[in-house]
Amino acid sequence: MIRTESRGAITAIAIDRPPANALNTELAAGLYAAHQRACADGAQVIILTGRPGMFSGGLDVPELLPQPRAVVEAFWLAFFRLTRALAVSPVPVVAAISGHAPAGGAVLAIHCDYRIGVRGNFRMGLNEVAVGLPVPDCIMLAFEHLLGARLAQRLAMTAQLVAMDEALAIGLVDELVEPERLMEHAWEWSQRLAALPPLAMNRTRMLARRRLAELLEPQADARLATDLWFSAETQAGMHALVARLAKK
């Protein structure tokens, strides 16, 4: 489910769980471990990417929906440990967004330091509300940190998925490249970051993220997200989603 490649001081972590790179407990824990290993092995920049056409389609709802509360809470804990690790990473994390990035895919990207998207008919955003799941507090905090409270509220409450051109215009991604140039450009950008004085660069980037670092708490966030998951409205929305997916 995860492929890694290192070039000097840069490590790329690729999600490879066909068809949609859907996130389950094993994948979230594996990505967390891959990030920790890369940092421990001396990586100065980390690239997070997906499969061509699909960064991540979000949570594996069909797998999670029938699970008991303890299993669902374990997923959320693994997921929020991963997103916090990205947000407070001791080295920059560059999201090379290789295609669609709805819901959980967008969540991974917004916790990274820099986002490179691909041109094409791809969409990105937090569409949880459309299936009855309130956006968890910690995710909304990261979304507001990136876009500002007014725009983050509008996009999240309307479950809006935006095209990549609009994602660039509003700052959800930092730049766009052709799909075939994505990884080449991500390596080049990462090399420029790695060439900067690391103490100065990393202290400066973490100053800008100190509010996230202080407020993200995986265990409390997982308990709240689990409570939301088992609400009657969310359960009804998730069952309807799984039924629609089964017909495709």
Quaternary: single chain
Count the beta strands: 10
Shape: globular
Percentage of helical residues?
Answer: 40-55%
Number of domains: 1
Report on the structure:
It is a single chain. This protein has 248 residues and is of the alpha/beta class. It has one domain (2-181, 212-247): 2-enoyl-CoA Hydratase, Chain A, domain 1 (Alpha-Beta Complex). Helices cover 53% and strands 16% of the residues. The chain is built from 12 helices and 10 strands. The chain has helices at residues 25-40, 61-64, 69-87, 104-110, 137-147, 149-157, 164-170, 182-194, 198-208, 210-215, 218-229, 232-247, and strands at 2-7, 10-15, 45-49, 53-54, 93-96, 99-102, 114-118, 123-125, 162-163, 175-177. The strands form 2 sheets. It has a 6-stranded mixed beta sheet with strand order 1-2-3-5-7-10, with helices on both faces. Helix 1 (25-40) links the parallel strand 2 and strand 3 (45-49). The longest helix has 19 residues, at 69-87. The relative contact order is 0.15.
Question: What descriptive keywords fit this protein?
Answer:
four-stranded mixed β-sheet; alpha/beta; 248 residues; six-stranded mixed β-sheet; 2-enoyl-CoA Hydratase, Chain A, domain 1
